[in-house]
Design brief:
314 residues, alpha+beta, five-stranded antiparallel sheet, binds adenosine-5'-diphosphate
């Protein structure tokens, strides 16, 4: 298990990581989601030993990492740019760390074959890395960071430079791949869909701190604060009795008898549903509905009570 307790990392006066605590289980992928500049990369770099900690403790399987040099920590890193060694073949790139660690040739060969199978590039050993597509190069980089069998893999926007379709495919594949390799991971991204896709849990970070940690559905359906709800893209934040509430967009159903009168302002078809804006006493709210409502008409909507979530103001 990776344990992070009260970690602080400073650049001069800037507290980039401001007293952050979280545990990551051995077979868990934690997606770390947050806006640019919130301290995500700094957190990863401190865990890897590339940035000094001002205070706090980071332990891996009970061992205090502060006492270990970066290469002794059992922590692998993967970045947005694969940064492969040019004009060398795929095998030479993947086995680089193993050669540095003094592993003999036959062991290295076996490990490279095993890893190419894991990342779906069987038979690529002797390909020049300059001839690889972006997605293939990123898989080779992944194989290279997995080669020394790290206990924890830190991924810093690993799909940031890839096009949408390729990114979606890797988001589908990566969790299985990490689970198959039995590796804990922290996967940094600023893309909500990517975080929800890869994370067993999602941690949302702003200003060097964690706002909330939990399964994707809880982060989306049960945000604790208005700040988090807004960051997740929720629009239906209303004031009731002097405090903010989130009305989930899935909360409403059309009801001929009960419900409140609303005026339909706009509707658009998305992902098999109708995203519908309505004017209510509390302002404009947006709901996903099964049916198309006529723009300009007045309809009665029932809003499920358990889909109205109280929020902290911050
Ligand atoms: P993120 O990865 O979430 O985009 P970073 O960890 O890169 O955020 O940066 C967090 C904060 O620390 C930012 O305010 C950034 O400007 C600052 N920062 C990052 N690296 C350095 C550095 N080497 N020197 C000084 N400030 C830095």
């Amino acid at each position: 298990m990776l344990e992070i307790q009260d970690l602080v990392v400073r650049y001069g006066d800037v507290e980039a990581v401001a007293g952050l605590s979280i545990d990551v289980a051995d077979d868990e992928t934690l997606a770390l989601l947050g806006p640019s500049g919130c301290g995500k990369s700094t957190l990863l770099r401190a865990i890897a030993g590339l940035e000094a900690m001002a205070s706090g403790v980071v332990r891996l399987d009970g061992v205090d990492l502060a006492r270990l040099a970066p290469h002794e920590r059992g922590v692998g890193m993967m970045f947005q740019q694969p940064a492969l060694f040019p004009h060398r073949d795929v095998a030479a790139n993947i086995e680089f760390g193993l050669r540095m660690a003094g592993m003999e040739v036959s062991g290295r060969r076996r490990r490279v074959t095993e890893l190419l199978e894991l990342v779906g590039l069987v038979g690529y050993e002797s390909r020049d890395v300059m001839t690889l597509s972006g997605g293939e190069a990123q898989r080779v980089a992944l194989a290279r960071s997995l080669a020394p069998s790290p206990s924890v893999l830190l991924l810093d926007e690993p799909f940031g430079s890839l096009d949408r379709a390729l990114r979606d495919r890797l988001v589908d594949e990566l969790p299985d791949l990490l689970r198959a390799a039995g590796i804990a991971a922290i996967h940094v991204t600023h893309d909500h869909a990517e975080a929800f896709g890869v994370g067993d849990r999602v941690a949302v970070m702003t200003d060097g701190k964690l706002l909330q940690v939990g399964p994707a559905e809880d982060i989306w359906r049960k945000p604790e604060s208005a700040e988090l709800a807004r960051f997740m893209g929720h629009r239906n934040i209303v004031e009731r009795e002097g405090r903010p509430f989130l009305v989930l967009p899935t909360a409403a159903s059309v009801d001929a008898v009960g419900g409140v009168d609303t005026k339909v302002l706009a509707t658009r078809f998305r992902d098999g549903r109708f995203v519908t804006s309505v004017k209510t006493d509390e302002g404009v709210l947006e709901f996903v509905l099964q049916e198309r409502l006529a723009v300009g008409s007045t309809v009665k909507l029932t809003i499920a009570g358990d889909a109205v979530i109280p929020l902290e103001r911050a």
